[in-house]
Amino acid sequence: MNVSRFQKQRHLGVAPEPKPRKGLRKGVYVVPSLFTAMNILCGFFSLMTTMSGFSLLERGAIAEATTRFDHAAIAIGIAFLFDSLDGRIARMTRSTTEIGIQLDSLADVVSFGMAPAILAYAWSYGTVFKGWENASQLAWFLTFMYVICGGFRLARFNVQATRPRPLSEGTAKVDKKSFVGLPIPVAGCLIAAIVHFSPTPIKYAPQRVVILAVAMMVLMAFLSLLMVSTIRFTSFKSVGAGRRLSARTVLFFIALFGLILLFSQWVLLTLAVGYVVHGLLSRGLSPVFRLFSESSR
After folding, report:
1. How many CA atoms lie within 13 A of 55 on its CB side?
2. How far apart are alpha carbons 38 and 50 in whole angstroms?
3. Which of 79, 95, 127, 146 could staple 203 via S-S, CB 3.0–4.6 A?
4. Does 86 have pLDDT greater than 60?
C-alpha cells in the first residue's frame, strides 16, 4: 500500500511542507523580462528625444535641443542599469530562459546600438558636415557600421554562450570572467557619457568644430572595431554574485552612487573611458606579464 508523503508527515506529527505556488514560480520568470522591457523603453525614449532635439536644432532652438540631447544620453545610462539588473536577477532566481537571452540582445541593439549611434550623429558630425557631400556620406557609413558591428558582437556572444567550445581553429573561448570584444552596452554608454559631459551640439562649440566632429567619427570607427575584436574585457559578473554581499561591496556601491549623483558628468565619463582603457592595456601588457612569468620559473 502506497502512503503519500503528506500522510507520513501527518502520522509522525510533522507539519507538512508547503507546496510551491505555481503562480509565484511563473512570476519569477517575468521579473527579468520586465527589466528588459524597461531597457527597451529607455532606448526608445532616447531615440525619440534625440530626433526631437535634432528637429529643434534645425529650427535654431539650441538651448532646448541641448536639453533633449542630455536627456537622451541619460536615458541610455538608465538603460544600462536595467540591462545590468535583468541578467543578474535572472541568475540569482535561476529564471534564465532562452527567450529572455534573445530578448535581452534585441534590447541591447535598440538601447546601445541604434540610440547612441543616432545620438552621436545628431549631436556631432551629422550637423557639422551637413552640405559636405563626401563627409556626410562617410558619417552615414560610420554610424551604420557602429550599429552593424554591435549587432554582430551580440550575435557572436549568444553563439559562444550556447557553444562555449571553439567553433573552429582560432576562435576564442568564452569564459565567465571576461567578454570577447568590447560589450555594446559599454560602447553605447561611452558615447552617452561624452554627450552628457558636454550636451551642447558640437556645431555650436566655441572653436575647432571640424576637429571635434572628425574626432567623434574616429571614435565611432574605433568602438566598432573594438566590438568585433578578440580583445578580452573584464565582465565583473562575479561582483556581488553571492547570496550575501560583503560590507565593502555595499559601501563601494553606495559611494559610487553618491558620486554619480553629485558629479555625474565626470564620474560616468571616467568609468566608461577607464573600462575601455583597462581592456586595451591588459591586452597590450599581457605578453609582458607572460614573458615575465616564464622567465621567473
Report:
1. 6
2. 18
3. 127
4. yes
- Please say whether the beta carbons of 87 and 189 come within 8 A: no
User: What φ, ψ does residue 193 adopt, rounded to 5°?
Assistant: -65, -35
User: Does 248 fall in a domain?
Assistant: yes
Domain count for the chain, please give it: 1
Residue with cell 536639453: 67
Element (H, E) at 180: strand 178-180
Helix (H/G/I), strand (E/B), else coil: 167:
coil
Which residue's entry shows cell 556620406? 137
Q: What is the pLDDT of residue 115?
A: 96
C-alpha cell at 234: 573584464
| Torsion-angle region of 84 (φ positive above 0: left; ψ -120 to 50: alpha; else: beta) | alpha
> pTM score, two decimals?
0.81
16 within a domain of the structure (yes/no): no
Which has the minimum average pLDDT: 78-92, 199-213, 280-294? 280-294
Euclidean distance between CA atoms 148 and 67, whole angstroms: 28
Identify the three-state secondary structure at position 179: strand
Residue with cell 533633449: 68
Q: Are 196 and 264 in contact (CB under 8 A)?
A: yes
Q: What is the pLDDT of residues 163-182, one digit of tens each?
A: 655 544 445 555 567 788 89
For strands 178-180 and 232-234, give the pairing. Answer: antiparallel
Question: Is 198 part of a structural domain of the chain?
Answer: yes
**Rounded distance, CA 212 to CA 208, Å?**
6
For residue 288, pLDDT beyond 70 = no
Range of the domain at 155: 28-166+177-295
Q: Which residue has the higher pLDDT, 214 or 175?
A: 214
252-270 tens-digit pLDDT = 889 988 999 999 999 999 9
| Contact predicate 52/68, CB 8 Å | yes
pLDDT-derived band at 127, boundaries 50, 70, 90: confident
